[in-house]
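Section: protein folds

Sequence with per-residue tokens
===
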Amino acid sequence: MLSPSRSAAFDILMRVGQGAFADELLHSERLNDLSLADRALCTQIVMGVLRWRSQLDEMIASWSKVPPHKLDLEVATALRMGVCQLAHLERVPAHAAVDQTVELVKRSGRRFAAPMANAVMRKIAGSKPAPPPAMGEEESLDRIAAVTAHPLWLLQRWSAEYGLDAVHQITRYDQEIPVPTLRLRDPKAESDLRDEGIELAPGALVARARRVTSGDVTKTHVFAEGRAYLQDEASQLVALLVGRGARILDCCAAPGGKTSVIAERNPSSLVVATEIWPARARLTRRLVRARNVGVVAADAEALPLVANFDRALADVPCSGNGTLARNPEIKWRLRPEDLSGLHCRQVSILRAALTCLVPGGRLVYSTCSLEREENEDVVAEVMRNDLRLLDCRDELQRLQAEGELAWADLDSLVRGKFLRTLPGVHPCDGFFAAIIERA
């Protein structure tokens, strides 16, 4: 009989193969009927397959006459799940991984492939696969790519931009389960979470962030009531850079985490959050509880707004490859040629957002990308005589003085005038931010 955890994991991975995001599906209602143990196993399998896919495919290809990319997606997905359990989940018996893989192939309507899947899984189980040995600091990029299951072209770019030591730290961080980080909406939420069995630690980067060291916060009443929400510390820091103003614009706001931080710090200001898709605009409205926020379904490249904002945030759609620890599927989807298209859209959104500023107004441009084309190059392209690039260090010092910034080493947070967090170098996602002022 097929286990509920593996059935759910297979369905999620099939959706991911069609363009969905695993993190959203793993926190969706589709897992509500699973026990805590089944939910945990489902999450382990899904994230394990996405984190280690290139390694899993190499093992499958070494024992199969057909490489995974030439198999039906259903068969390849079942085999990846099975091999992941053999190689990375010590508590799963080998016979269970083999039998469940064959059952998944049958359930998917690919019964003709069941004998092949059974043979491949038995061969791999007999070979007792083990993770590759730990790397030394002088390893080649090819070996780092193989051992950490990252596309080589990404590592080549990161090595040229940030150095080999940073590549080691980024790839190690990407392959680990990130510590969940919260933003709390009211002072009592922390004690109430502790009463519900959640253990918390102070934020490492942002003082008011809380890191979940034990317990499932998504199962608490505090979380269900919206008094606490999950938000990476670097994301919180970007929102803090926006500062204070009377009228604040947040472009591309969904799902609303940064909007909430901005509204919380500006309780008497008007905050306008825009999102192109009506469904995501409605989601933002549900998640952002602040009464001083108005949500508008609008295209950020052609905002239907007048120039009367003194603060703005343009957290634009991007490759997202600074978030691979939480969204590992991105590294298998992204292609080098995608970056030019993203760059053009980002330039268009930033230009539109800048037109909404009053003279003297400031805008924070941000991405969760590690690529120069989406960051420094976008800022350079939009700069003109009536715009001034401010130094993020000044704002970070201000946040430090106000007790908002917990991180002491400001030098590691800036590159030139820009904010730059790197996964592993910092305990958070990789974010870029620039502050632009209209003269």
